[in-house]
Amino acid sequence: MPKLGIIIASTRPGRVGLPVGQWVDKEARTHAGFDEVDLIDLAEVGLPFMDEPSHPRLGQYTHQHTLDWSARVDACDAFVFVMPEYNYGFNAELKNAIDFLHREWRYKPVGLVSYGGVAAGTRAAQMIKQVVTTLKMTPAFEAVSIPFVQQFLDDEAVFTPNELLEGSAKAMFDELLRTEAALRPLRTA
Prior knowledge:
By secondary structure, the chain is of the alpha/beta class.
């Protein structure tokens, strides 16, 4: 069974991404279609702004943080990006984390969990598709879009979804598994 990496994109203090990411992690483990789930918090990974001297497509990494990031991403077979929408787009920390690497992303499916206000982060989800497809990733059509995300958080910042969000997560995980199986021969070739 494949290994799933869930990347929490937001790094700011007081962020909503952490409780949403923890919920996605719980749902992925309940789904039980993945052999292993790695919850990756970019606030903990702490990548600096791109500082490698060579282009990532060359794989000539010189910094330990890049080598560690490369190994962690390479070990995953599929991803879920848990991301906010800022100014009609996705956040810089996620773009930086993606741009650090190249081959490690290839032929892997990605599910998108976006959140925000009335648009539920969907504009960020649309924008990131251009980036991931350039890296030969395959975005799942099934996604989780969380409108007015604050309504799902209690006073302790615990995320409690409704049935629609739970169903969307299950559909996304199902599609990630199907797509990962189809892409696996391309990764091993």
